[in-house]
User: Fold this.
Amino acid sequence: MKLVRMLANLGHGSRKEVAAMFREGRVTDAAGEVLYADDQPERDDVRVDGEPLDPAPGMLLMLHKPTGHTCSAKDRGRLVYDLLPPRFALRSPTLSTVGRLDRETSGLLLMTDDGQLLHRIISPKAGLPKVYEATLAEPLRGNEAAIFASGTLMLESEKTPLLPAGFEVLAPDRARLTLHEGRYHQVRRMFAAVGNHVVALHRPQVGGLTLGDLPEGAWRLLDDGDRAQLYAMGGAGTTPAP
Ligand code: URA
Assistant:
């Protein structure tokens, strides 16, 4: 692929804007030799303003989403894209969130520009567990684990019952829930169905991947090891490590 197109696809600007970067001598090889729009050098050998290129298409990243940010590319208010380098929102193929977290939910959010990978991760066949920690307005009643594990709980306006979900009590008003599907506002609606209300919701884990020590608002690229870790807990019915 010609360099001008590669840089435009990485969000450096329109082709016209990228062409201007070449004229200004901002695109070089690793040795500092100026490159031209039609050149097709090895990707690793390209520098823009002396910096290596952003990750190639096929990237997968994990963001520690804080509350107050929306999983949307266009919305009023703060977006998850505001936490990434501004170029990432202009990439082609587009960088999308893998599923969504509500604006007021914090935690592990995956993002990728690989449509097939995205579908593999969210596919019910993969059955990747998603672990949530919910703080509740009312103390737990004690019947939640049985109701959530039943496989018969029907949420309003849904046509099929929820899959069995794992449940652990963390405190009188806190619980950890492990889901193998992702329906709209699922955790909040599950607790509403048992007469409670979620006041804070956090997702520490997807598949076998956890946030680790990634600070809130930070992100990191996922490598092959992370990807293997993600799938290490596939299959409905598996329970995540405590
Ligand atoms: N369930 C919810 O209710 N909200 C989320 O953000 C994720 C799961």
About this structure: The chain is about 20% helix and 25% strand. The helical segments are 3-9, 15-23, 115-122, 144-149, 186-193, 224-231. Residues 10 and 54 are 7 Å apart (CA to CA).
